[in-house]
Amino acid sequence: MFRMIQIDSKKHAEMLQVALEILQGQEILIKDRRSLKINLKEHLELERESIYKGNELLDYKWLTEREGLRLLIKNWRDDELKHHKFLKGLSEKSYIPISSDDFVAVLREEEYLEKRYLLLKRLHLEKD
Protein backbone atom coordinates (compact mmCIF):
# COMPACT_ATOMS: atom_id res chain seq x y z
CA MET A 1 0.00 0.00 0.00
CA PHE A 2 2.82 2.40 0.85
CA ARG A 3 4.39 1.59 -2.53
CA MET A 4 1.16 2.74 -4.25
CA ILE A 5 1.24 6.00 -2.29
CA GLN A 6 4.88 6.53 -3.29
CA ILE A 7 4.07 5.95 -6.96
CA ASP A 8 1.12 8.35 -6.75
CA SER A 9 3.29 11.03 -5.11
CA LYS A 10 5.94 10.57 -7.80
CA LYS A 11 3.30 11.02 -10.52
CA HIS A 12 2.13 14.24 -8.88
CA ALA A 13 5.69 15.57 -8.76
CA GLU A 14 6.15 14.75 -12.47
CA MET A 15 2.90 16.55 -13.36
CA LEU A 16 4.04 19.62 -11.46
CA GLN A 17 7.39 19.50 -13.29
CA VAL A 18 5.59 19.51 -16.65
CA ALA A 19 3.47 22.47 -15.52
CA LEU A 20 6.63 24.31 -14.49
CA GLU A 21 8.24 23.64 -17.89
CA ILE A 22 5.15 25.01 -19.65
CA LEU A 23 5.21 28.13 -17.47
CA GLN A 24 8.88 28.56 -18.32
CA GLY A 25 8.07 28.67 -22.02
CA GLN A 26 8.01 25.11 -23.32
CA GLU A 27 5.32 24.89 -25.97
CA ILE A 28 2.78 22.11 -26.37
CA LEU A 29 1.85 22.25 -30.04
CA ILE A 30 -0.80 20.27 -31.92
CA LYS A 31 1.65 17.67 -33.25
CA ASP A 32 2.67 16.87 -29.64
CA ARG A 33 -0.91 16.82 -28.42
CA ARG A 34 -2.08 14.25 -30.99
CA SER A 35 -0.15 11.42 -29.34
CA LEU A 36 -1.00 12.84 -25.93
CA LYS A 37 -4.70 12.78 -26.85
CA ILE A 38 -4.49 9.12 -27.93
CA ASN A 39 -2.71 8.18 -24.70
CA LEU A 40 -5.24 10.12 -22.63
CA LYS A 41 -8.12 8.37 -24.38
CA GLU A 42 -6.60 4.96 -23.65
CA HIS A 43 -5.90 5.91 -20.04
CA LEU A 44 -9.45 7.24 -19.58
CA GLU A 45 -10.80 3.89 -20.76
CA LEU A 46 -8.59 2.02 -18.28
CA GLU A 47 -9.78 4.29 -15.49
CA ARG A 48 -13.42 3.75 -16.51
CA GLU A 49 -12.83 0.00 -16.14
CA SER A 50 -11.09 0.48 -12.78
CA ILE A 51 -13.97 2.60 -11.47
CA TYR A 52 -16.46 -0.05 -12.60
CA LYS A 53 -14.46 -2.81 -10.90
CA GLY A 54 -14.13 -0.72 -7.75
CA ASN A 55 -17.89 -0.20 -7.66
CA GLU A 56 -18.44 -3.93 -8.15
CA LEU A 57 -16.15 -4.74 -5.24
CA LEU A 58 -17.84 -2.20 -2.99
CA ASP A 59 -21.19 -3.91 -3.64
CA TYR A 60 -20.03 -7.21 -2.10
CA LYS A 61 -21.79 -7.89 1.21
CA TRP A 62 -18.77 -9.59 2.81
CA LEU A 63 -16.80 -6.36 2.37
CA THR A 64 -18.96 -4.60 4.98
CA GLU A 65 -17.43 -6.92 7.60
CA ARG A 66 -13.90 -5.98 6.55
CA GLU A 67 -13.82 -2.26 7.28
CA GLY A 68 -10.11 -1.73 6.54
CA LEU A 69 -10.33 -3.43 3.14
CA ARG A 70 -13.54 -1.56 2.30
CA LEU A 71 -11.88 1.78 3.16
CA LEU A 72 -8.86 0.91 1.01
CA ILE A 73 -11.02 -0.02 -2.01
CA LYS A 74 -13.27 3.03 -1.56
CA ASN A 75 -10.30 5.41 -1.41
CA TRP A 76 -8.74 3.76 -4.46
CA ARG A 77 -12.02 4.05 -6.38
CA ASP A 78 -12.50 7.68 -5.29
CA ASP A 79 -8.93 8.44 -6.40
CA GLU A 80 -9.68 6.92 -9.81
CA LEU A 81 -12.82 9.08 -10.06
CA LYS A 82 -10.75 12.22 -9.36
CA HIS A 83 -8.10 11.23 -11.89
CA HIS A 84 -10.74 10.45 -14.50
CA LYS A 85 -12.46 13.81 -14.07
CA PHE A 86 -9.13 15.66 -14.15
CA LEU A 87 -7.81 13.87 -17.25
CA LYS A 88 -11.11 14.27 -19.11
CA GLY A 89 -11.03 18.02 -18.45
CA LEU A 90 -7.35 18.22 -19.35
CA SER A 91 -7.95 16.51 -22.69
CA GLU A 92 -10.47 19.22 -23.62
CA LYS A 93 -8.27 22.26 -22.85
CA SER A 94 -6.38 24.52 -25.24
CA TYR A 95 -2.67 25.07 -24.69
CA ILE A 96 -2.22 28.10 -26.94
CA PRO A 97 -1.82 31.37 -25.01
CA ILE A 98 -4.90 33.49 -25.69
CA SER A 99 -5.67 36.92 -24.31
CA SER A 100 -8.95 37.22 -22.42
CA ASP A 101 -10.05 40.04 -24.74
CA ASP A 102 -9.27 38.10 -27.95
CA PHE A 103 -12.74 37.68 -29.44
CA VAL A 104 -11.38 36.07 -32.62
CA ALA A 105 -10.21 33.13 -30.52
CA VAL A 106 -13.77 32.30 -29.52
CA LEU A 107 -14.80 31.84 -33.14
CA ARG A 108 -11.75 29.95 -34.47
CA GLU A 109 -10.41 26.40 -34.34
CA GLU A 110 -7.29 25.56 -32.41
CA GLU A 111 -5.23 24.96 -35.59
CA TYR A 112 -5.85 28.56 -36.65
CA LEU A 113 -4.90 29.86 -33.21
CA GLU A 114 -1.69 27.85 -33.19
CA LYS A 115 -0.68 29.07 -36.68
CA ARG A 116 -1.37 32.65 -35.62
CA TYR A 117 0.61 32.19 -32.40
CA LEU A 118 3.63 30.73 -34.23
CA LEU A 119 3.50 33.47 -36.89
CA LEU A 120 3.41 36.23 -34.28
CA LYS A 121 6.23 34.55 -32.37
CA ARG A 122 8.36 34.32 -35.54
CA LEU A 123 7.65 37.96 -36.43
CA HIS A 124 8.57 39.00 -32.92
CA LEU A 125 11.87 37.07 -33.11
CA GLU A 126 12.69 38.56 -36.54
CA LYS A 127 11.98 42.03 -35.18
CA ASP A 128 14.47 41.58 -32.35
Principal-axes shape call: elongated
Q: How much helicity do the residues have?
A: over 70%
Total number of distinct structural domains: 2
Distance between the termini: 55 Å
Strand percentage lies at: under 5%
Number of H- or I-type helical stretches: 5
Q: pLDDT average, as an integer?
A: 77
The profile of the biggest β sheet is:
none
Structural class: mainly alpha
Radius of gyration from the CA trace? 21 Å
Q: How many beta-strand runs? A: 0
Which regions are unreliable across 5 or more consecutive residues at pLDDT < 50?
none
Oligomer state equals single chain
SSE order in H/E notation? HHHHH
Short description:
With 128 residues, the chain is mainly α.
What does this protein structure show overall?
With 128 residues, the protein is mainly alpha-helical. It contains 5 helices and no strands. The protein has helices at 2-23, 30-58, 67-91, 103-107, 110-127. Helix 2 packs antiparallel against helix 3 (67-91). The model has no long low-confidence stretch (mean pLDDT 77).
Which features would summarize this protein structure in a list?
single chain, 128 residues, mainly alpha, 2 domains, 5 helices, elongated
List the helices and strands and how they pair.
Blueprint: H1 2-23, H2 30-58, H3 67-91, H4 103-107, H5 110-127
